[in-house]
Design goal:
The structure holds two protein chains of two kinds. Chain A has helices at 5-37, 48-53, 62-97, 100-103, 110-143, 152-177, 180-200, 217-220, 224-227, 231-254, 266-272, 277-287, 292-299, 301-317, 319-325, 328-331, 339-343, 353-362, 365-381, 383-387, 391-394, 401-433, 440-468, 471-491, 508-511, 515-518, 522-545. Chain A has two domains: 1-258, no CATH class; 300-552, no CATH class. Chain A is built from 27 helices and no strands. Chain B folds into two domains: 5-220, Rossmann fold (3-Layer(aba) Sandwich), CATH 3.40.50.300; 225-284, Alpha-Beta Plaits. Helices cover 34% and strands 31% of the residues of chain B. The chains are: A mainly alpha, B alpha/beta.
Chain lengths: 552, 302
């Protein structure tokens, strides 16, 4: 398997992809089973605008609902997220690890390495698509659901090409800049923005044409699972892939490769300048290294800045005025929609500003945003220092292991509060700008619950980090469980028999009390906080007992 | 804080699954000495160090530093030690000075004049980010970090890696100064010449077993010599194999080189009996050869 760069890369990558697509396949089974058991006739009475937001066709049946929600929504996002992470790792990842120089010490050109990585990306995405196709074909047969009229092949093809589009973009950015963080961050930003824009813009009549400017449009707008392959749209995506590929080849060949060096940041320049040196030193030097938690927070300032800005501007401020722009037909829906159905999309009643915010911001995006910060910090807290081999040096100082765990936890708590605060500020501002008149206290309540939810899963990542010393186990473990719990909370309420089991999911204690309308539910808040505290205490115990890992 | 022994281990054993990384290690490191801990890669040196630092826990046995149990009193112990890990990694985004400030804060402060003095002696640049330093210059930051709190016990794992010869000499002088102040240096190394130069005593470890523990001077006086016989023609080295005192024979280009600790008379008789001997040089063996000798002995005896 180590015959060449292509096979080694494929070997490195296939596992992550397999986990993602097998999980998606399982969700398809679960989703279809749930949809089969409920009365879905209510869909037919809904207006087009609402349905298009979720990619649900007008003549909804069990099959199109399941494929629309699971594959077109979560599935496409997940598949794309995996390929963009791999694309970003292609060149920039090897550079960061310091292995690219070693690789290029062999008589192989940069273009060869890039080509091998690209081929591996196509193959791994293809394998993922294959699994999704098999699951997509086997599930209806297994559950005896009629899927006449559903074009699984067209859907999986569109998903793969769409995913490769973002993978190629990430690869190109990585090849030009050598920065993996920039490549995956910028691409993920474009992906999310484009996904949200393509979902929302068609709802605003005067702006619907703008959706075509966002690449996600060429995946979802033609509804390939219903209408078959739209070759025109596929061609647009393929053209993008080719352009990014060429850009990557040019990018990787034209610049100096980075060693294992670190970039020069703005604060470094300020420190070098005599007039600003004093203040900059206080920020970047003295203050940053004064305690373990300050240093930990400083390492995530970029991530926190991006997440907080996204929540404040996009999910907070922008959503408010958009409510006023919405098609008024949408606002009359309140009585027509059963609550259980809306819960599947994070809950929320579209006819009220609170419901609108819950559906757009708090249901899905806000948990993702807060967990991006807390799970990342919690997961890397201990295992990150072990994998970077700095833990031995840190613990050579006269401090307890429990001190390290608790100071890292403090950094995570601060990060959760920062995201929660800026979400609160953004939504409050959005409510004012749109003249929605939402209760400030209730916005604070839901933001606090959001922070606590993030901390519960951050503490779970911390616990896995403390137990294993392995960053991937901690982060993927926590993210995987979060996904499972999210879907349990979304789907179980549909079932009469299993509805009560939604309470095992931490997500239940986040929005089920409808805090934007009813204010703070202290019981639920205490439960989430208690869960976090218990997991943190467990982390301390686990970390104290374990041998530190020597290498990553 | 001063006890007779700086580091003591009793029956210290560490298994990783089925692999025994450290077996029944009994070791006493005296206060005020430079102790060299020698062994090839994978012999168990780092495992021993990580165990006494409480990074990992022994499968059986105990260890103490200045009489304090390395597990129960690990935080107290770490107030009094300086540690330089092998294969040093630090925080790439911090400058050298930031890194030292961070650790100084975790220690509750250090004497910065002393830090500057150390940086001066090692010619270290503390203004650059650690991630931008070459491995040798990064190592200097690590060395300063280990020395800066004037620890009672300095534990260093392969500390000279990447340092150029001039800096190495300064570094060795620094270690001798620590010992002359009555403090202790525990120096793990596979660079025998370095240990030979600075250590008072040396322990040799192989496959997790301590196979020798001697004063450096005593090791030398084992009287193993290196004898170089120069003939007028190539000779068959096999005639020397098996002679009493001959440990190792190599022949090349009219020379026969032996590790030898027997009677010179016997050797010369064989050498002059059949061949024409032109020149003979003999010199005290260095630790390298002694080391190999110990290894071979340990191998043949099991």
């Amino acid at each position: 398997m180590l015959a060449n760069v292509f096979t080694k890369t494929t070997q490195d990558w296939w596992k992550g992809m397999t986990i993602a697509v097998v999980t998606l396949g399982a969700f398809l089974v679960m989703g279809m089973a749930v949809y089969r058991d409920i009365d879905i006739s209510i869909y037919t009475s809904m207006p087009d605008a609402f349905l298009s937001l979720f990619g649900i066709p007008n003549d909804a049946d069990v099959g199109s609902l399941a494929y629309g929600a699971i594959y077109t929504g979560y599935g496409a996002l997940t598949l794309t997220a995996v390929t963009l992470v791999l694309g970003a790792a292609s060149i920039a990842g090897e550079e960061r690890k310091g292995t690219l120089g070693l690789l290029l010490g062999n008589p192989k050109s940069r273009t060869y390495v890039l080509g091998s990585k690209a081929a591996a990306l196509v193959l791994v995405t293809g394998l993922g698509a294959l699994v999704l196709w098999v699951a997509g074909r086997a599930t209806p047969a297994l559950l005896d659901v009629d899927i006449t009229g559903i074009d699984v092949e067209a859907l999986v093809l569109a998903m793969s090409v769409n995913a490769l589009f973002y993978g190629a973009l990430a690869m190109a950015i990585g090849a030009w800049t050598g920065s993996r963080g920039l490549a995956s961050g910028a691409t993920a930003g474009i992906m999310v923005l484009s996904f949200v824009a393509v979902g929302l813009l068609p709802l605003i009549e005067s702006l619907d044409f703008l959706a075509k400017a966002f690449p996600w449009y060429y995946f979802s707008a033609s509804e390939p699972h219903l209408n078959g392959v739209n070759w025109g749209h596929i061609a647009v995506l393929l053209a993008g892939i080719v352009v990014f590929g060429v850009a990557a080849v040019i990018g990787v060949n034209r610049r100096d490769l980075k060693g294992q060096t670190v970039g020069v940041t703005l604060i470094d320049r300020l420190r070098a300048n005599p007039t600003t040196a004093k203040v900059a030193n206080l920020l970047a030097g003295t203050a940053r290294v004064s305690r373990i938690w300050t240093k930990t927070i400083s390492e995530y300032q970029g991530l926190l800045f991006i997440v907080a800005t996204f929540m404040f501007l996009v999910m907070g401020v922008m959503i408010g005025p958009m409510y006023s722009l919405l098609d008024t037909a949408l606002l009359d829906l309140s009585d027509a929609l059963p609550e259980a159905l809306l819960a599947a999309f994070g809950g929320g009643d579209m006819s009220t500003p609170e419901g609108w915010y819950q559906l757009e911001s708090f249901g899905l995006m806000a948990p993702i945003a807060v967990m991006a910060a807390t799970v990342m910090i919690g997961g890397r807290a201990l295992a990150g220092e072990e994998e970077n081999r700095t833990m031995g040096l840190l613990l050579a100082n006269p401090i307890r292991r429990s001190t390290v765990v608790l100071e890292k936890t403090l950094a995570m708590v601060i990060a959760g509060l920062v995201v929660g605060f800026w979400t609160f500020a953004g939504v409050a501002a959005g409510s004012l700008l749109g003249g929605l008149g939402m209760s400030i206290g209730n916005i604070a309540a839901v933001s606090l619950l959001l922070t606590l939810l993030g901390l519960a899963f951050g503490a779970l990542a911390l616990c896995l980090s403390a137990a294993t010393g392995r960053v991937p186990v901690a982060i993927y473990g926590a993210v995987g469980l979060a996904l499972v719990f999210f879907l349990l909370n979304a789907f179980l309420p549909f079932s009469d028999r299993l509805g009560g089991w939604a309470k095992v999911s931490p997500f239940y204690y986040y929005l089920s009390s409808d805090p934007l309308v009813n204010g703070m539910h202290w019981g639920h808040g205490a439960l989430l906080a208690g869960l976090a505290v218990a997991l943190i205490a467990l982390s301390v115990m686990l970390f104290q007992r374990r041998d530190l890992r020597q290498t990553g | 804080m001063t006890t007779e022994f700086a580091i003591q281990t009793e029956g210290l054993t560490k298994h990783y699954g089925d692999v025994a990384a450290l077996v029944d290690l009994d070791l006493d490191v005296r206060t005020g000495e430079v102790f060299g801990f020698l062994g090839p890669n994978g012999a168990g040196k780092t495992t021993m160090i990580r165990t006494i630092l409480d990074e990992i826990r022994p499968t059986s046995g105990v260890a103490s530093i200045h009489g304090m149990d390395t597990h129960d009193k690990s935080v107290e112990i770490r107030k009094h030690i300086g540690y330089l890990p092998g294969d040093l990694s630090m925080y790439p985004n911090l400058t050298g000075r930031d890194t030292l400030t961070y650790f100084a804060n975790l220690r509750g402060g250090v004497d910065w004049d002393y830090v500057d003095q150390l940086a001066d002696r090692l010619d270290a640049d503390l203004t650059k980010k650690v991630g931008d330093l070459s491995s040798g210059n990064r190592q200097k930051v690590g060395v300063i970090q280990a020395f800066m709190n004037r620890p009672d016990v300095l534990i260093m794992d392969e500390p000279s890696s990447g340092l150029d010869p001039l800096i190495q000499r300064e570094f060795q002088a620094m270690m001798r100064e620590v010992a002359s102040e009555g403090r202790t240096v525990f120096l793990s190394s596979h660079t025998l010449s370095e240990v030979q130069r600075v250590a008072d005593r040396v322990g040799i470890i192989r496959h997790g077993h301590l196979i020798a523990l001697e004063a450096v001077a005593a090791l030398r006086s084992k009287a193993i010599r290196k004898v170089d016989l120069y003939f007028d023609a190539d000779v068959d080295e096999s005639v020397f194999v098996g002679l009493p005192g001959v440990r190792e024979v190599e022949s090349q280009n009219h020379h026969v080189v032996l590790s030898f600790d027997g009677q010179m008379e016997t050797l010369l008789r064989v050498a002059t009996d059949r061949y024409s001997l032109i020149d003979i040089t003999t010199q005290e063996a260095d630790l390298e050869e002694i080391f190999l000798t110990y290894y071979r002995d340990a191998e043949t005896t099991g």
